[in-house]
Amino acid sequence: MSKIVRDYGFDQDRLRQEDFISLDTLRKGVENPVRLDLNNDENPDELQPFFCWLELIRIPFPDFNDGRGFSMAKRLRQLGYQGVLRAQGYLIADQYRMARLSGFDEIEIDDLLAARQPEWLWRSQVLKKNLSYQDRLLKTG
């Protein structure tokens, strides 16, 4: 099972893997709103013509040091995508604020990570008003 991290805390993930389609399937055409699994090496600009069909886009974070998903989320929002953006995989609570600032609405984590990084830790990130490194430099300069 997976947990969905949102600003108010954890929810159980009610979606199954088969509830998502691939970009190749989307290209062939759809008749109803869909949920898309977008690999983090695919071009988000390709999706703009399909935005009206996409209710949720899930972008994987295959390991802790792969931040391509942040750039993809930001680009999708710049292109005008207004549906749900979900990060999936190896994100930690310290990255939650960055994920939200990049455009993600929620994060999907497995139960093992949720046990190691409990709900209170994720929720504490929502309340943080930490300035970025650059902001702190300008404030002291």
Q: Which shape, going by the Cα principal axes? A: globular
- Biggest sheet layout: 7 strands, mixed
Model regions low in confidence, pLDDT < 50 over at least 5 residues: none
Q: At the third CATH level, what is the topology name?
A: Rossmann fold
Strand order of the largest sheet: 2-1-7-6-5-4-3
Helix content: 25-40%
Q: What would you call the structural class?
A: alpha/beta
The number of strands is 7
How far apart lie the N and C ends? 48 Å
Assembly category: single chain
Q: Whole-number radius of gyration?
A: 16 Å
Beta strand %: 15-25%
The CATH architecture comes to 3-Layer(aba) Sandwich
Number of helices: 6
H and E order: EEEHEEHEHEHHH
- Average pLDDT, all residues: 91
According to CATH, what is the class? Answer: Alpha Beta
Verbal overview:
With 141 residues, the chain is of the alpha/beta class. It has a single domain, classed as Rossmann fold, CATH 3.40.50. Helices cover 34% and strands 24% of the residues. The protein contains 6 helices and 7 strands. The chain has helices at 23-28, 68-79, 96-102, 111-116, 119-127, 133-140, and strands at residues 2-6, 9-12, 20-21, 34-37, 54-61, 84-89, 106-110. Strands 2-1-7-6-5-4-3 form a 7-stranded mixed sheet. Helix 2 runs parallel beside helix 3 (96-102). The chain starts with a strand and ends with a helix.
